[in-house]
Amino acid sequence: MGIRTVHPLARRDLTAKRIISGSPAASNVSDPVPPPGFRLDPVYWEPQIYQYDVRELWLGMVTEAAHLAQNPGNEPVTTVEIFHLVISNTAIHLFGRDFMLTHNTLVWALWEIGRRMALLYPFPQRIPFFDGLIKTSAGTVGHFRGIPPTHTMITSNSSSHGAITARLRRDNSANLVARANQGSRPCREDPDLVVHYQFLGQQLPPGDTFTAFLKAQIFFSEYDADRADVSILAFGMNRRVRLAVHRDAAGSGGNGLKWRHAWMAVRTVWTELMIGYSYDAKGYVDPIRLESLSFTLRYKNVIVGRGSLSP
């Protein structure tokens, strides 16, 4: 098995066809079904080793799940996936065992890790170093493990009991001004696809919001990128937040929304609108904003889809 180092915010080639790992007609769009026997067991949390910045880790986990979701869902992971967090000198290693770990199962694993950390360490707490095993009915199929940073400091916060924390670069969050309540963002992978958004003012439970975006990546791992039957209803861990994306059937561009467009749009909403991260600045440019919103998707100036994030 080889090693592939991945920056989770790297540009992705979305032109390749992917095979479908599940039957769309047989599945409920609001509730994807995990692989048979799927579970994480055991999972270890070790705050004495290291503590992650929650904003950075949430950004990295969703974008890594998005990266994995663009691979054929039912094909085995043939490399050691290493994804780096964007501000601290930290990484997460994802290993498969004997080619039994599929990309879809690995996306499910990131969802389950995220669900557990959001329950155990509610926002804005730091998240401890973690590692554990990925299992299905076939047995142990994979392993995940955090990697502490190469440059660290000992925190003076007595509540952390001397744990190592990352020295963040370009983290000027306290000085940021909230983005406009409405606007538009072109998608980095295809600037012809533009997200027109409007924040609606209702604060959302952070853990549910984070896990709703993780759940959306499971949909993307199960459908061919060039299909036009987009219908996503991704719930957060307690079903208190829902992320919906669908084609605009009433509009002239209703058949123009492909799954790859929805993937780009969801990643743009999470990375740039929710988290406030800028690809160009390579850092945070807006405060984190976990708030309800609606959005319209235009491709080459034609409305092709709509979406929302709501309770």
Blueprint (SSEs and pairs):
Layout: E1 2-6, E2 39-52, H1 54-69, E3 79-84, E4 91-96, H2 103-120, E5 127-136, E6 139-147, E7 152-154, E8 164-166, E9 182-187, E10 190-203, H3 206-222, E11 231-235, E12 242-247, H4 259-274, E13 277-278, E14 283-284, E15 291-299, E16 302-310
Parallel strand pairs: 1-3
Antiparallel strand pairs: 2-5, 3-4, 4-6, 5-6, 7-8, 9-10, 10-15, 11-12, 12-16, 13-14, 15-16
Helix pairs in contact: 1-2, 1-3, 1-4, 2-3, 3-4
Low-pLDDT runs of 5+ residues are: 10-28, 151-171
Helical percentage: 10-25%
How does the major sheet shape up? Answer: 6 strands, mixed
- The succession of helices and strands, N to C, reads EEHEEHEEEEEEHEEHEEEE
End-to-end C-alpha gap: 43 Å
Give the neighbour order of strands across the main sheet: 1-3-4-6-5-2
- The average pLDDT score comes to 84
**What Rg, in angstroms, do the CA atoms define?**
19 Å
Structural class by secondary-structure content: alpha+beta
Rough outline: globular
How many E-type strands? 16
Number of helices: 4
Give the amount of beta strand, in percent. Answer: 35-45%
In terms of quaternary structure, what is this? single chain
